[in-house]
Amino acid sequence: MPFASAIRAIIVDDQLTSRALIRDGLQQLGIQDIEQAGDGEQGLKALLQKPAHLVISDLNMPKLDGLQFLQAVRAHPSTQKAAFIMLTGRGDRALIERAIKLGVNNYLVKPFTIPVLKGAIEAVFGKLK
Amino acid sequence: MTLHRSAQRTEETEELPQKVHIIQGQYHVSDQPSVVLMTLLGSCVAACIHDPLARVGGMNHFLLPGADRDTNTREAERYGVHLMELLVNGLLQRGARKDRLQAKLFGGARTLERLSDIGRQNSIFAERFLKTEGITYLGGSCGGESGRRLQFWPVSGRARQAMIAGKEVPIVVPPPAPHVDGDVEFF
Question: How many cross-chain Cβ pairs, A to B, lie less than 8 Å apart?
Fold first, then answer.
């Protein structure tokens, strides 16, 4: 049972407002060590500088999109073990299936509540303390 | 009936207009000159966003859930953020660039005196979203006590509204709350 406070997370989303909402949600769950990036390229750079246990990434982003970012994360030895949760809108079923093939750990359909966010994280890490 | 015309007017098509009605909880993006996006607004807000260079635009129509009740504002905002994000992403997928986006906001009326000012909360949220995301806000028409019939030409960015009498104002339907336990699939 992992301590939420021990989890290092990174939120990758091109919308500042979305990032702020997710950050608030993670903080409410006890995760305090949170980095942020505006696209996959920045996200990968940040992850290589400071590895994270949990990556929460949007699917639609400029430069490296969510799938390309996931592929890059899984390809790099220092980041490949990070838990990766993809954020998506309804109707992205085909993309989610591609993400599953690329090694995503879980996904969340927007908009979601904090209990749903918690459920998605716990499905990957086990129950949070 | 008051007629309001937004500042920007460019050429429009000679073709017969293709009317697309947007209801609460929906959004639509188009780069077709013949398309006119239409909606009826009471306390809901519609964001009309347009890229003048890519000549693509779109409209959404949202109401923050629980804005009329004593609920967690942050939670309520998730729904609005989602609809704004769908619209912006839809525009970017059609060739728009975020730094060129121009937005107009309409709606947010206080249509029922006995209710709290839901409309104002909706328009404040929308303005804050645009500011946070760095999207140029050209103005529009928010507040007041009358509903609005809105038309938006996505290619030119032109918007036109007509104020409507109280009895014509659409009934507010609370948007579906996000599922608490139903949307996540574990694998």
Answer: 74
Q: Respond yes or no on whether the N-terminal peptide bond of residue A111 is cis (omega within 30° of 0).
A: yes
Q: B37: part of which helix (H) or strand (E)? A: strand B35-41
CA of residue B26 relative to chain centroid, distance: 9
Q: To 5 degrees, how large is the angle CA A19–CA A24–CA A28?
A: 145
Summarised one tens digit per residue, pLDDT across range B11-61 is: 455 668 899 999 999 999 999 999 999 999 999 999 999 999 999 999 999
Residue B86 with chain A: CB contacts under 8 Å: 89
A129, with CB counted inside 10 A (0-12, 13-18, 19+), is exposed
Q: Does the beta-carbon distance from B78 to A20 stay under 8 Å?
A: no
Pair A19, B133: CB distance under 8 Å: no
The two structure tokens encoding residue B74: 């942050």
What angle is formed at CA B82 by the lines to CA A88 and CA A92, rounded to 5 degrees? 25
Which amino acid, one-letter code, is at B122? Answer: N
